[in-house]
Amino acid sequence: MFFILAPALYFTDELLKDTAMILWKKNSINLYVLLAFCLTGCASTAVGAFEELAEPPVRIFFATDRNHTDSEEPGKMFGSERGEVSYGICAVSIPSDHRIGELESPIFSEDIMEHVVLADVSLYDRKDYFSKVAGFVDRSADKHMLVFVHGYNMTFEKAARRMAQVVRDLDFNGCPVLYSWPSRGKVSGYPVDETNVRWSEKNLKGFLEEIAVKSGAESIFLIAHSMGNRAATGAFLELISERPLLEKRFKALLLTAPDIDAGIFRRDMAESLEQSGVHITIYVSSRDKALELSKRIHGFPRVGEVDGVPLIVPGIETIDASSVDTSFLGHSYYNGSRSVLSDMFYIINEDLRANERFSLEAVDTKDGRYWRFKE
Fold it and tell me: Within this chain, do residues 5 and 151 fall inside the same structural domain, yes or no?
């Protein structure tokens, strides 16, 4: 029985893991008992010390409007309720044998030598935080910054681990920044997450403004995933509307698997995004089961799904990742697909457009051109 269960516990897609748990509950009480035993053994304490690591941990600046709990454990320091914006730096271990596109996770207890582990969180007041950000940017070669806004079903810990993996896989040498909004971190929390991501939009806009003004970053790259695209696009558009001179600070927006109403996006956002002069890229997939479900819930297509021809908007590059995403849910290719990570690498590090990236091929339709990965 263990050998049936073990592979599922290694899945990097957290939503898939939760879905699998539900199925096991329904189909086998024995599997449920074994699963409960295994999860009980998933201790949240990292084993080992940073000094023993072959490579230094990935250190990420963060801001979050989650509630600050009383826990001193890094993964539980922030909850799923709304709170004041907190600032800090977290340290995430990456194993020496890490493979690109993998989020190495434990079966039982965490080990910073073998797993991607959120091992430390340090809090700073707002003034000290932005001072440290500016200092980090000033010491970096290109003065680049990467801001990540996570999606639905994400705890603070999950989001930090995923961003650290992406930072390492992109070989990003600038200043990495995570913005974590109060997602419930569970499948059943979708309605609350929809409300909270909208609530966080104003806080994110204010944070992006301060980052753009105070960090000294010459190029800010904004990556958003799933539902997080709602806050990211809304905050960015409101910011450049109020302070258009800050547009030049932003180099690119990478919208991965956007859980946004496609009609609203085309009518209310697309033109402003295109006219911003910022390089806008949308990653979509016909295999995205999470967005298929979102469409059924809302009654309208999502930007990140593909049903025939993907959403095509003049001035915005749409990349179809259907052929390279082989995960069950097809929703987390931004951190799980080597091809997508490589494509984002060339946007961020080489400033290449779609027609310059060798792994893509153009597809011309009556609605315009989009791009897909070569097979």
Answer: no
